[in-house]
């Protein structure tokens, strides 16, 4: 199930628990992107915002911020830890 949600990738690499950004998910739908981030870093909370919205201030090492295009619901910017 996870492989299908992650863009049908049958060669899914092992999780990378040290990742701090996910450039590969730009252009993905928000659900598969969130699943991929959670696959790599299960301890973080993935927070979705519309492009142009401002996330809560301050760095949070347990949060990944994902900006989504409100019209097409695809990831529009590189998600980053913080």
UniProtKB/TrEMBL annotation:
UniProt GO MF annotations: serine-type endopeptidase inhibitor activity
Location of the region described as Disordered in the Swiss-Prot/TrEMBL record: 1-21
Keyword presence, Transcription: no
Name the record gives this protein: Uncharacterized protein
Protein family membership: Belongs to the protease inhibitor I13 (potato type I serine protease inhibitor) family.
One of the protein's GO biological processes: response to wounding
Transmembrane segments annotated in the record for this chain: none
Key words, A-Z: Protease inhibitor, Serine protease inhibitor
Alphabetized PANTHER family for the sequence: OS02G0124300 PROTEIN, PROTEIN, PUTATIVE, EXPRESSED-RELATED
């Amino acid at each position: 199930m996870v492989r299908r949600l992650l863009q049908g990738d049958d060669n899914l690499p092992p999780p990378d628990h040290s990742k701090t950004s996910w450039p590969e998910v730009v252009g993905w739908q928000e659900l598969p992107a969130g699943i991929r981030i959670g696959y790599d870093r299960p301890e973080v909370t993935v927070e979705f915002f519309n492009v142009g919205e401002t996330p809560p201030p301050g760095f949070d090492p347990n949060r990944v911020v994902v900006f989504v295009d409100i019209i097409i619901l695809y990831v529009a910017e590189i998600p980053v830890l913080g």
